[in-house]
């Protein structure tokens, strides 16, 4: 598990190369269409929040910014769904380990 800077975007479309280049330059490590709005709403209601992300595809960056070669197309929706399915088992295992700590009121990690 890694920590980093997660940027939430509105969606519902995948990010463009230009958007990803901008977000990388301002410090983003991961980009997603969920989590941020839900976390803000939950905190507004006084709830404790634990944000988890399952990264399913690499950002479409140009080669000079670390992206794939021009002939490699960005991941499509089907590849994203397959990656999510493959990662779901790991996420279930993690949540199964975290649930008992949460039920006891234990610390779920750092807060900001």
Notes on the structure:
With 112 residues, this protein is mainly alpha-helical. The protein has helices spanning 17-25, 36-44, 77-103, and strands at residues 6-8, 30-32. The chain has a two-stranded parallel ribbon.
Helices and strands in order, then pairings?
Blueprint: E1 6-8, H1 17-25, E2 30-32, H2 36-44, H3 77-103
Parallel strand pairs: 1-2
User: What is the CATH topology assignment?
Assistant: Rossmann fold
Q: What's the β-strand tally?
A: 2
Cross-sheet strand order for the largest sheet:
1-2
Mean pLDDT: 82
How would you classify the helix and strand content by structural class?
mainly alpha
CATH A-level architecture = 3-Layer(aba) Sandwich
Q: Quick one: overall form? A: globular
The number of domains: 1
Helical stretch count?
3
N- to C-terminal separation? 18 Å
SSE pattern, N- to C-terminal: EHEHH
Low-confidence stretches: none
Largest sheet: 2 strands, parallel
- Beta-strand content estimate: 5-15%
CATH class: Alpha Beta
CATH superfamily: Nucleoside phosphorylase domain
Family: Belongs to the PNP/MTAP phosphorylase family.
Keywords: Glycosyltransferase, Transferase
EC number: 2.4.2.1
Pfam families: PNP_UDP_1 (PF01048)
